[in-house]
Amino acid sequence: MGKYLLSLLLLASLCVSGCDFMRTLAGRPTSAALENKRQQIAAAAAAAAAAAARDTVVVPAPVVLDSLSAIDSLRAMGCSMISKARLGGSKEALPHAYYIVIGSFQSVVNAGRQEKKASEAGFETVIIAFRNGLYATAVSPSDTPAGIYENYKALRRNAFCPKDAWILVNR
């Protein structure tokens, strides 16, 4: 009977004290120690995430960073860049440094038709009269190589844009 009483007392003490009693007997950490360690790990992870966010440098997705990379990107797309002087100059002064030429014509009427298509598509257009007698339909002027690169990419998405569109450099 003494054995049964001892077993019953042992069983009652296990029910009252639960797993922590057994963990202590086995040399393992208790529930309170485990919870404390979990909180320490969570705090350390939050501190590491805050430090990483503070130290992270955000770089915008593909951006043309300077003039040389914009010009290289245009050439990689198969776009020619021709200076106004090489064409003999224009009859009037042009206010912008770069223009995208979508057509050169001997007739100003034909240049006007191409200009109408581009302006109907929402592009800023101009007809440039050259001293050699040609009229060029130019769109989307810009003063920076990065600007003309972005304009050229936007223009290429339109059906009216010819594959042989080129950049007029007004320098």
Describe, in plain words, how this protein is organized in 3D:
With 171 residues, this protein is of the alpha+beta class. The protein folds into two domains: 2-55, no CATH class; 67-169, Alpha-Beta Plaits, CATH 3.30.70. Helix content is 49%, strand content 16%. It contains six helices and five strands. The chain has a five-stranded mixed beta sheet with strand order 1-5-2-4-3. The relative contact order is 0.14. The mean pLDDT is 83.
SSE arrangement:
Elements: H1 2-17, H2 19-26, H3 31-55, H4 67-76, E1 81-83, E2 98-105, H5 108-120, E3 125-129, E4 135-142, H6 145-156, E5 166-169
Helix pairs in contact: 4-6
Keywords:
49% helix; alpha+beta; 2 domains; five-stranded mixed beta sheet; 171 residues
Described by the principal axes of the CA atoms, the overall outline is rod-shaped
Q: Label the structural class.
A: alpha+beta
Distance between the termini: 111 Å
Strand proportion, as a percent range, falls in 15-25%
